Amino acid sequence: MTLQPMSLYPVFAERVRSNIPVALVTVIDGPHVGATMLVSPSIDAVGTLGDSELDRVVARDALGEVEAGRTGVRHYGPQGQTTPEDLVDTPTVRVFIEAFSPPPTMWIFGAVDFTAALAKVAKVLGYYVVVCDAREVFATRRRFPMADEVLVSWPAPLFAQRGAALTSRDAVCILTHDPKFDVPAVQGALATNVGYIGVMGSRKTHAKRLERLAEVDIASADQLSRLMSPIGLDIGARTPEETAISIVGEIIARRTGRGAPSLRDSDGPIHK
Fold first, then answer.
1. Same structural domain for residues 82 and 197?
2. What is the residue-wise DSSP string for the chain?
3. In a domain, 244, yes or no
4. Helix 203-215 vs helix 179-190: crossing angle, to nearest 10
5. Rounded to 5 degrees, what are φ and ψ at 74?
6. What are phi and psi of 262, to 5 degrees?
7. What does the pLDDT read at residue 256?
8. Structural domain span for residue 148
9. How does pLDDT run across 121-134, given as a tens digit for each residue?
10. Residue 6 confidence (pLDDT)
11. Starting at the edge strand that comes first in sequence, how are the strands of the sheet with 227-228 ordered?
């Protein structure tokens, strides 16, 4: 078996430059030291660590590290053993997994003042920000210079073209109150694996939105439980900037599993 570790580095570098999630796995101790394998979601692994079963197990774990955006060292048996009992009296293979994930994405629907504030805060946190509105006069680069993309589009085409790429690391924030826009945006978001869906509006607006969603067959508890509406943490935010902080705070709390007071889970007026 011929192992040529250096040949994979240009491929790894090209995928990083192209913002393709990727992990470069290198054996740093054990048989075949220096052997490498390149792993990306939806792309066949390239290279080998010297054993087909080891390749399979490590590729599985490397994809998990790509999803989490982590880099580190893992230990296996020569044939991919991972349980303590299987590793007793077995030579250890140590592999270094160098994972690259593109920045998380935030799609913001609605070209409003709150959008500008949220886009600024999201960029500080490292998000790739896409602003989308069907109104050409409002969805302009001049109004949202901090966004990576400003699209003049209805929600359905954007989700049809790019929704499959959204992951649990990403967020969709719907800041418009127009039912012709927010209902399709919610529909599109629920059809993806996006990790956060927040929808702006008062409790009265949310109740009316639920009625409109029911008209398009979105009414199950599983579907509605994914909606954070009213959007944001219950911290008394009033200005667009304060509201942006409450939204990203809620996104962080949901991602980390920390308890935080969301407006969705409280009652009474949003602004006191």
1. no
2. ----GGGGHHHHHHHHHTT--EEEEEEEESTTTT-EEEEETTEEEEE--S-HHHHHHHHHHHHHHHHHT--EEEEE-TT---SHHHHTT---EEEEEEEE-PPPEEEEES-SHHHHHHHHHHHHTT-EEEEEES-TTTS-TTT-TTSSEEEE--HHHHHHHHGGG--TT-EEEE----HHHHHHHHHHHHTS--SEEEE---HHHHHHHHHHHHHTT---HHHHTTEE-S-SBSS---SHHHHHHHHHHHHHHHHHT----BGGG--S-S--
3. yes
4. 70
5. -130, 155
6. -80, 145
7. 83
8. 105-265
9. 999 998 999 999 99
10. 53
11. 149-152, 128-133, 105-109, 171-174, 196-199, 227-228
Q: How far is CA 19 from CA 15, 72, 125, 139, in A?
A: 6, 20, 18, 25
Res 2: pLDDT: 42
Give the separation between CA 110 and CA 138, rounded to whole angstroms.
9
Tell whether 272 is covered by a domain: no
On the CB side of 167, CA atoms within 13 Å amount to: 15
Residues of the chain predicted below pLDDT 50? 1-3
Question: For the domain that residue 183 is a member of, what is the CATH number?
Answer: 3.40.50.720
When divided into structural domains, the chain yields a total of: 2
Please check whether residues 214 and 238 belong to one and the same domain: yes
Q: How many Cβ atoms from other residues are within 10 Å of residue 230's Cβ?
A: 20
- For the entire predicted model, the pTM comes to 0.73
pLDDT at 243: 95
